[in-house]
Amino acid sequence: MNGTKSFVCAIRGPITLITLGVLFALNNFTTYRFDQTWPVLLIVFGLLTLLRRGIEPPAPPPTPFAYTPQAPPPTPYGQTPYSQTPYSQTAPPAEVAKGGFGGSAPQRPAESTGNSPANPGGTA
């Protein structure tokens, strides 16, 4: 089997050169031109490939992939997995909100020290 495969590989080059020589001879000595006969090269390549594949033994089937589930990695101390993140909790009350982009959060009420937006220093 292996000797036949090497034989097919060995004759591929010479058969291609012989075919090319025949096509050039047809170009020079007949009315057939190379631009009309070059598809013969494709046919010869295809026949040689079919011959080689017909001689090769079939490839073994791939081994089935067995999925073995693994335990998730341990979480570092003090952290929770993603399924238990605090993002699923409710938002803090509006009076504790510290603002955000564009100032869309409600303003915090002024404290008893006298600080207000109009009097930032706290002196009344």
Number of helices: 3
Question: Could you say which structural class the secondary elements and strand pairing correspond to?
Answer: mainly alpha
Oligomer: single chain
Which descriptor suits the 3D outline? Answer: elongated
First CA to last CA: what distance?
104 Å
SS elements, strand count: 0
Q: How is the biggest beta sheet arranged?
A: none
- Determine the strand fraction and express it as a percent band: under 5%
Unreliably modeled segments: none
Average pLDDT figure: 74
Query: Over all CA atoms, what is the radius of gyration?
Result: 41 Å
- H/E series, N to C? HHH
Q: Specify the helix fraction band.
A: 25-40%
Q: How would you describe the overall organization of this protein?
A:
With 124 residues, this protein is mainly α. Helices cover 40% and strands 0% of the residues. It is built from 3 helices and no strands. It is elongated and about 100 Å long.
Summed up, what is this model?
The chain is mainly α. The protein is 40% helix and 0% strand.
Features:
124 residues
Outline the fold blueprint:
Elements: H1 2-29, H2 34-37, H3 39-55
Helix pairs in contact: 1-3
